[in-house]
Amino acid sequence: MNRMSQSLILVLLGGAVLRVTVLSTTYMNYVKPGFRPFLIAAGAVVLVLGVIGLVQEWRKPHVTETGPGQRDEDTGSGSAHAAAGDHGHHHGHDHSRVSRVAWLLCLPVFAIFLIAPPPLGAFAARSEETPPPPPSLSADAYVPLAADRATSMALGEFIGRAWGDSRHSLAGKKVTLTGFVVRSSKKDRWYVTRMQMSCCAADAIALKVAVLDAERPPDDTWVEVTGTWIAPKSDKIPNGTVAPELAATDVAEIPQPFEPYE
Amino acid sequence: MPDRAVADRTVEIPPDAWGRRSAVSPVMPWVFALVVVLLLLGRFVLTPVLAAPALQTWATVFVAICVQALPFLVFGVLLSAAITAFVPPSFWTRALPRHPYVAVPIAGAAGAVLPGCECASVPVASGLMARGVTPAAALAFLLSSPAINPVVVVATAVAFPQQPLMVVSRFCASLAVAVLVGWVWLRFGRSGWLRIPSRPPASGSSWAAFRDAMRHDLLHAGGFLVVGGLTAATLNVVVPRTWLASVAGIPVLSVVALGLLAVLLSICSEADAFVAASLTAFSPTAKLAFLVVGPMVDLKLIALQAGTFGRSFAIRFVPLTFLLGIVTSIAVGEVLL
């Protein structure tokens, strides 16, 4: 692989990373929002490295015509000539040669541009069979809910309250949950779901709340579900084996939220 | 979000350097121009076709692994190239103890200082070796730095709020494994197994050497990172996690199972504590094994190590690390958890 292709691959890669971070918010499909500055910095470094390489390649013929030693980067390639003999423009024995594995760096670029991967949806949530995580807050750390209106709540908080709150703060209170639709194997319910990621989409886990008493919209539809929590009939079922249940009074379709993950 | 993308795509690619290449070589530029046209048009032609949920999920995980690892890789490569280009070789002989058996634990403990993902540690370790550091000491650093650095320690403490001993166990077990592997390599390792990446003596300005080393490492390590990302994404989508639940109750097997899961999932060491915390069915010792093995052995790391240090290195180093990781986790788990 010659320097030309190396530089072009770096330009493509850096361009693709900057494309999903600077020019759009697509990067939120893959990583946490706080990751943006690091991604921009990394993309910029890669792009600049590629562009410098391209400029060097482009100037090379002029160097041999006008003689080496004009600019500081030319002195570098000039003495490399002297040291490595006929190394020059093509494959040398040193760092100018990179194995063909570097071509694989085109794959993420192609995936970003051609497949345009969406945030994880119902497919990932369905195949995700591990029980949801335990409540993130310790018990009794939850504030009481308003009695007269529906409270918007993250799915993680709802699950935490349903499982970990000894004072049953959810009982009888109206809440609004936002997520996408995942069908269930049971007939009478479907799941409102949100993927929770701690670092990137590879470690995302599905937070699910079972919705009862409502018609199921198609999979992957984003919805706002308003309803009340159904307290489990027995205390025998350990936390984490079944999703908490919600009796829905209202289901509204919404566009995909700005941040797809929780 | 394809509709948002349509509007601004043309601004980003082709970049400004694109027009200049025509002066150089007659074929390559046209190939790349074709690729860019394909990327631009493919959005309209191919994206609707490539909409199978399984493929999209796979692509999301694959791109996520690559995108998330890239900043760490760039950081590691920057550091490694800086070590190669700007730090004189004599520095390391003065900084590390002369005796290799003493240098190993010192280098392992030095890993606690440098915040970085495992993707960063491979190029840094190779840069250290190229600068004359004893390979075993560089390997101890390679293993310890992603496992015990401050960011990982804090993340672990956040993920296990009720179990402060988990943080202590992780730190001790990871450092112990790194030092043990270093000593074993020092005692039994042969120099022929390890391909120390050769660095040409800095020709010309050190700035040019820095740039060249960086480009080389980035492309090389990046290529192998993609190999690891492909494998991890495929396993992530294809292998259901249900089989895990069946082994959760069996003492030693559950520890090995979570160790293997850490290898397969290839989660960054800064995030793996949260995943470990979510595996509620498993014993604390099994979770500890997940946390100890994950930063030291996983698919993208294996690909990176095989690519950087050679295959004959990886087939010995990886099983050794895995085995010692499991054994140490069980031992530390018995005592502390």
Task: Give a short overview.
Chain A is 34% helix and 18% strand. Chain A is an alpha/beta fold. In chain A, a hairpin with a 5-residue loop joins strand 2 (174-183) and strand 3.
Structure overview:
Chain A: This is TIGR03943 family protein. Chain A: Keywords: Membrane, Transmembrane, Transmembrane helix. Chain A is α/β, with parallel strands linked by helices and 262 residues long. Chain A is 34% helix and 18% strand. Chain A has 2 domains: 113 residues, no CATH class; 132 residues, Beta Barrel (OB fold (Dihydrolipoamide Acetyltransferase, E2P)). Chain A is built from 6 helices and 6 strands, in the order H-H-H-H-H-E-H-E-E-E-E-E. In chain A, strands 2-3-4-6-5 form a 5-stranded mixed β-barrel. In chain A, a hairpin with an 8-residue loop joins strand 3 and strand 4. In chain A, helix 1 packs antiparallel against helix 2 and helix 1 packs parallel to helix 4. Chain B is an all-alpha fold and 337 residues long. Chain B folds into 2 domains: 50 residues, no CATH class; 274 residues, no CATH class. The N terminus of chain B is likely disordered.
CA-atom Rg of chain B in angstroms: 22 Å
- Structural class by helix and strand composition of chain B: mainly alpha
Strand content of chain B: under 5%
Helix content of chain A: 25-40%
The major β-sheet of chain A equals: 5 strands, mixed, barrel
| Unreliable residue runs of chain B | 1-12, 14-24
Number of helices of chain A: 6
Percent of sequence in beta strands of chain A: 15-25%
Order of helical and strand elements of chain A: HHHHHEHEEEEE
The CATH architecture name of the largest domain in chain A reads Beta Barrel
Mean pLDDT metric of chain B: 82
What number of structural domains do the residues of chain B give?
2
Kindly report the CATH topology of the largest domain in chain A. OB fold (Dihydrolipoamide Acetyltransferase, E2P)
* Quaternary class: heterodimer
Structural class of chain A: alpha/beta
